[in-house]
């Protein structure tokens, strides 16, 4: 739940971001460190649009 809140706070569209973050979290739940991947994925998604190298 904490991850969801952080994502919503950073994004202007809490519904859209929350949905994507939730899916990623669920998918990475099997991983050894799902929280890190979750945050990384959520941040990367937002950063990618802003940080288009």
Automatic annotation (TrEMBL):
Q: Identify the domain of life.
A: Eukaryota
Bias class Low complexity marks the residues at 7-22
Stretch list, region Disordered: 1-53
This chain belongs to the protein called Uncharacterized protein
Origin organism lineage: Eukaryota, Metazoa, Spiralia, Gnathifera, Rotifera
